[in-house]
Write a structure and sequence with these properties.
The protein is an alpha/beta fold. The protein has one domain: Rossmann fold (3-Layer(aba) Sandwich). It is 31% helix and 27% strand. The protein is built from eight helices and ten strands. The protein has helices at residues 24-32, 50-58, 71-82, 97-102, 127-133, 142-152, 165-177, 227-233; strands at 5-7, 12-14, 40-44, 63-67, 90-93, 108-113, 153-163, 181-191, 196-204, 211-218. The protein is globular. The protein starts with a strand and ends in a 7-residue tail after the last helix. This is tRNA1(Val) (Adenine(37)-N6)-methyltransferase. It comes from Hymenobacter qilianensis.
Amino acid sequence: MANPYFQFKQFRVEQGQCAMKVCTDACVLGAAANLSESARLLDIGTGTGLLALMAAQRNPAVQIEAVELDESAAVQAVENVAASPWSERIKVHGLSLAAFASTQPAPFDYIICNPPFFRHSLRSPDAARTTARHTAADTLSFEELIAFTAQYLTPAGQLTVLLPPPEMRHFEQIAALGGFFPSIRLQVHHRLGSRANRHITTFTRTPEATENCSLAIYTEAEATYSPEFKALLRDFYLAF
C-alpha cells in the first residue's frame, strides 16, 4: 500500500485520496523545469498539488494556478496547498481544462504538465487511476493541451511536459502543428547506462536546435542515487 503522505523538506503532500501518488518522475520534473523568470505559472493536472508546491518553493515570486479534473484529487490538492507556506500564491481549480479555459484566465508565461500518456496500454480497473494515466477524448488529449497552450501561453512563454519517449515523439508532432518546438530535452534514465524511460521536454514558439541532456536517477549498481539526482532534489528530499 502506498504511503498516505510524502514529507518533503518544506512541505508535506497528503495523497490518500489521489489516484496518482507522488513519484520520482514528477519530482524530477518539478525540480528540473526552469522556473527562475516565471511570473504566472499553470500546473495542468496537478493531482496532489506536487508540481505547484515545488514551483512555489523554487520561485518566491511566481503566482500559480493549478487545474485538476478529479474531484477527490482537487480537494486533496487544496488541502495540501492550504497547509503549505505558499497558500497565498497557489490557487487550485477543480475543473477540466476546457472548463478552466471557459473562465478566460489571464495568460501564463509558464505551463507545466505531467499529462495522461498510456494511449495504447491496458486500462486499470481503478477508474480514477485510468483517468490520470490514459489519454481520452473526455479527459485530456495532447491536441487539447497544445490548443490551450497556443491560446493562453505568452509569446515568449514555455511549456514543459513529462512523457515516455514514444509518447513524447507523438506529442512533438502535435506540438509542431500547433507552432511549438522543443528547446530543451532532458532524458531521464532509471540507472546509469540504461535506456531513457522518460523525457522532460520544454517547448517554445521559436524553432531552434534542441539542447539534449540526461539524468540518471541511480548509479549502475541501482542501489545508490546518482550525484546528479541528489544535487537536483537536495532542496526537497529529506534523505539528501
